[in-house]
# Entry
Amino acid sequence: MVGFPMPASTLLTFLNTGNPTGLKFTVEHGGRRALFDFGLEHAPGRAPFSMGLEPRPGRELADLLAVGSAPRLDGVYEGWDGRTAVFITHMHLDHTSLVRFLHPQVPLFYPAAMEDLRSAVEASGYLAWRRPAGTPLPDRRPLTWGEIEVTPVSVDHDLPGATGYLVRTPDLFLAYTGDHRWHGLHAESTAAFAEAARGADVLVQEGVLLEPPAAAPAAGALPPLPRLSEHDVALGFGSLLASTRGLVVANLYPMNRERVALLAGTAAASGRRLFCPSALNG
# Structure
């Protein structure tokens, strides 16, 4: 846990900074605290509980706290401290999987555009959620938590409802991207967030395919795979269907609804049908 006092009286604290625990940080001002994201990354072989090793039934939170996978944070687990609110950016596990441990009184906010997916994921049993579920936030509508103003601003990511947040206190303007990307179907959303974040004092950024270019491969090594856009994926899938007879198997992430729909449309255009066995389970 690392805290950074900001000018005057705002405190920015990073509880976790990423793999394998998921990014979590707080902004505190005037006796109120805003906690951003509350997940646990799926990291086989890197996380203490992975590769078949699970926390003890009924002791999950205690075990996650003991190994450092969940942050030791007063006022959110056993009871509410009356000052902490939690803001979620999107439904991926590294941003949400600890939400079920939040005390029922802790104010919980998430993007309104995420609600359909959130309710479907909870109903399917894929991810347990806190009850009551929380409050969906309309895009670009500020919410005031004491002297902390939090505004959700949508970004492009590989599942519905992804958002970033603009956070303002009397002495700080912070922009948090959540997970965002430029190679998807809605790069204009990410560009609009960047414009809204212009002038921020602090930028907290997560992203997909934002790393620097890979070094040239060694002699005899295979060249790196090209970086594909979602449009490239559709074109490649269409070419594969056109050149392959019989069954074609695609490994899809169900929460990536746009890609599922895109591949279904590509299959239909090729005279094929996308068949999802999981749909047989209701």
Remarks:
- DSSP finds six helices and twelve strands in the chain.
